[in-house]
Amino acid sequence: MKKLFNLSFFYLILGLALGVFFREFTKLNDFTGVTTLSAAHTHTLVLGFIFFLVIVVLENVFTISNIKNFNIWLITYNIGLLSLISTLVARGIFEVLNKDFAGLPHMAGTAHAILGLSLIWFMIILKKSIFSK
User: Fold this and answer.
1) Measured between alpha carbons, how far is 54 from 33 in angstroms, rounded to an integer?
2) In this structure, how many other beta carbons lie within 10 angstroms of the beta carbon of residue 47?
3) pLDDT tens digits, residue range 90-132?
4) Are 53 and 45 in contact (CB under 8 A)?
5) Most buried among 40, 57, 62, 93, using CB within 10 Å?
6) Helix (H) or strand (E) holding 57
7) CA proximity to 7, closest of 56, 54, 69, 52
8) Are 35 and 95 in contact (CB under 8 A)?
9) Is residue 105 a contact partner of residue 88, using CB atoms and an 8 Å limit?
10) Residue 37 to residue 59: CA distance in whole angstroms
11) Of residues 21, 53, 26, 24, the one with CA closest to residue 40
12) What's the rounded Cα separation, in Å, for the pair 72 and 119?
């Protein structure tokens, strides 16, 4: 449970830092348009901080970490989330600097796919944990 709490705390700090980066980077570059940097901030807080906070509660109630392959799921989810956040930040920086970001949509799509499959996998783990009692 400590690992899950620490992940939640990590994503809170990362999400808040990305919010500050978004505000300061756009201000520094006199950018007033729409950029995906703001999405990186909210995605990190919701899919990282809040999601893992919910998992801490679920772990306390259902002990979901006892389900087979939970640790593999945890690694896969974090790879997907960190990849997604990275591509959002990179694309946002390129947008602010008015540079080409060819190739990033493919990486972002792959990150979304990994994250989506991980969410389905999590629901299967949760179902096994709930109905095994």
Assistant:
1) 34
2) 19
3) 999 999 999 887 888 889 899 999 999 999 999 999 999 999 8
4) no
5) 40
6) helix 51-62
7) 52
8) yes
9) no
10) 32
11) 21
12) 13
The CA distances from residue 101 to 25, 67, 107, in Å, are 18, 40, 11
Q: How far apart are CA 89 and CA 10, in angstroms?
A: 17
Amino acid letter, residue 54 = V
Q: Tell me, what amino acid is at 71?
A: N
Please give the DSSP secondary-structure letter assigned to residue 1. -
Q: Tokens 């792959």, residue?
A: 110
The predicted model scores a pTM of: 0.92
Token output for 101: 């970001």
- Tokens 């602010």 belong to which residue? 96
Instruction: Go through the chain and tell me how many residues it has.
Output: 133
